[in-house]
Write a structure and sequence with these properties.
- The chain has 228 residues and is of the alpha/beta class.
- The chain folds into 2 domains: 116 residues, 3-Layer(aba) Sandwich (Rossmann fold); 92 residues, Rossmann fold (3-Layer(aba) Sandwich), CATH 3.40.50.12500.
- The protein is built from 9 helices and 8 strands.
- It has a 4-stranded parallel β-sheet with strand order 2-1-3-4, sandwiched between helices. The protein has a 4-stranded parallel β-sheet with strand order 6-5-7-8, with helices on both faces.
- Helix 6 links the parallel strand 5 and strand 6.
- The radius of gyration is 16 Å and the shape is globular.
- It starts with a strand and ends in a 28-residue tail after the last helix.
């Protein structure tokens, strides 16, 4: 059994994580605890992270893209290190996971379909660029729209993948349709969060046809690690 622990904001797409768990191998478990938001008490977060380890988590991921990139690349890694110290297991965040996942699907140029305000979206673009990923297009997405429509509107001819970073969006059920709509990998917040946790837990080869390119069956390969 491989267990990935998630710290997720209240109200975010818990059902997506359950769906991912169901679609993956039967010995993969996704455990999550909700927290109040960016102003949550750090001591409580540390306790919740430690609780995930006691529940069997082999890795912990801060399951919020926005809360993990706003202060930049270096600060995101400091946050992950602090979380690892509190949890007692390897830790990361959704934002850092995007940097790894983009490379894992063989992309270096991406388009963003983000539900954030423009300045926040630009902040995420700078975060990715600090990881050596070129953002060739950004478009503010409407959260109420179907995922295939969001990615189709955001896609750019120069992009090798489309990113939908908001972990509040339920995306998994429409992921295959979204990838078909643009003919390239689509990476979403909830999907990347679980994948990053499995990467940290060194669970290689987890796959599911319904989870798109990131979880497609393929020969094991090294995952790019950015310089910190």
């Amino acid at each position: 059994m491989t267990t990935v622990g998630l710290l997720r904001p209240e109200g975010h797409a818990e059902d997506d994580y359950r769906r991912i768990e169901t679609l993956l191998d039967s010995d993969i478990r996704v455990a999550s605890v909700a927290y109040g938001g960016p102003d949550e008490d750090p001591e409580r977060l540390a306790a919740e992270a430690a609780g995930l380890r006691l529940a069997g988590a082999e890795a912990v991921v801060w399951a919020s893209t926005g809360a993990s990139f706003v202060r930049g690349w270096e600060a995101a890694h400091e946050q992950a290190r602090a979380l690892a110290l509190a949890a007692g297991v390897p830790a990361s965040s959704t934002s850092i996971g995007f940097a790894h996942a983009v490379r894992a699907v063989g992309a270096v140029r991406v388009a963003l379909a983000a539900t954030y305000a423009q300045d926040v979206t630009e902040g995420f673009a700078r975060f990715l660029e600090a990881a050596g990923i070129e953002v060739v297009g950004t478009r503010r997405a409407h959260a109420a729209g179907p995922l295939p429509d969001l990615v189709r509107a955001a896609d750019d001819p120069g992009a090798q993948a489309v990113l939908v970073p908001d972990t509040a969006l339920a995306t998994v059920s429409l992921l295959p349709e979204a990838e078909t709509a643009v003919g390239k990998p689509v990476l979403t917040g909830t999907l990347v969060t679980v994948w990053e946790g499995l990467r940290l837990a060194e669970r290689r080869g987890a796959w599911a046809e319904e989870l798109g390119t990131l979880f497609a069956r393929h020969e094991p390969r090294d995952v790019w690690e950015p310089d910190h």
